[in-house]
Amino acid sequence: MDIREQLYEHVPRLRRYARALVSNRDLADDLVQDTLERGLSRYRQFTPGTDLRAWLFTIMHSLFVTQTRKVSARAEHVSTDDEHFVHDADLAVPAGQTHPLEIRDLDYALQRLPAEQRAVVLLVGLEEMSYAEVASALDVPVGTVMSRLSRGRERLRALMSGAPQGTKLRVVR
Hints:
mainly alpha; Rna Polymerase Sigma Factor, Chain: A; Arc Repressor Mutant, subunit A; 9 helices
């Protein structure tokens, strides 16, 4: 299979992860494009027989960290594709249930997590990667992955329950 086809197979997961990380559709698409460009240009560095998905997530994480460090020097991204810019929210049809509100609240809570915790929570929870795969993708020990995941989940629970910051939630089983 051609390298472009192999990379193309991973675009939906890369896009989903990027959108959860960045929370801005245009910037997320830019991050995916940068990831694919870097993956294509450095494909010779990929070790055949290893997990291409994990390698691409490693590239994306590296790019995200680099871009996050530069965010203070960066201006806000505004789309100029159309003279009459329409926000996605303006086109949305209201739903008859609370599911969209829960999704919005979850997205809001995820954006409040520290970047390190958010990355681990998304890779484990959304992308269903193993702790070892996440550790490899983020270049951290497995113990760090487990610690960040635990703290991230606890913080998410607190944010979703509306508990004040610093409040420890008791999990009843």
